[in-house]
Sequence to fold (288 residues):
Amino acid sequence: MDRRLQLALVLLVPVAVLLAMIAVDFGIGGPGRGRDYVLRVELPPAGGRIGLPKVQGPPDASRPLVVLDPGHGGHDPGAGTGDLKEKMLTLQLAEALRDALLENGGIRVALTRDDDRYLMLAERSSIARRLKADLFLSIHADSVDNDGARGASVYTLSERGTNEVAARMAARENGADEVNGVRLSMTSDTVGNILLDLSQRETQINSEQFARLILREIGGRMRLHDPDVQSAAFAVLKSPDLPSVLFESGYISNPDDAAFLSSDKGREIFAQVLAQAIRVYFARRTGV
Fold:
């Protein structure tokens, strides 16, 4: 090979490599800026606290307060395919329930999120505790690989789940605190606040009472997948001093359930059922 050609190659190859790296960095022909190969999530600063949502309803602080928690949000869509995603369905259901409660008065209501934002599981229960809520209801929609399963289920907390299906469901929901497979962690203060004290039986008893009221009020108005109260180790329910229930409103993977829950009539029935269960629960405890 001609010596001049060899010298030219020695000089030009590094330049070519540098230009290729610049091209990749600016999104020309490969992953880089402007591409979605890496998921970036805005997290609160270390040691910081997210702001509290607005409490709606009567201005009297002695009135009972229920915090509604629409599951998932932001980069975490939850279950569902196509246009129907769990994160938006749960928000719509929570808003319908909030409106039904406010319409009849007497109960204060707050939503952990009222838009498409991401909240860590510990933040959701922390919001309810910081607001000094009397009841916490987390709203979800289930999913399986086949479309045969359908119907709602009601869950309370237990370190030992009702069955293997409940355990798998809890593991899936608890996995919402992961980004790109990396487990997210809260500050030590927040973690300390959510440590479960199973010795506080009153909280668990109240949670189970509310769960049974939901099943009673459904009374054939919504299809049930499990006719009895289920239990699993849902991280979002681990508030030692706050009665907490997770409601799987149906199977978003089932066409009939998905159509019902996303319809105006379905949301109305959902809101009526849950609102009545909440009212009866507080009536028994406070006389509202």
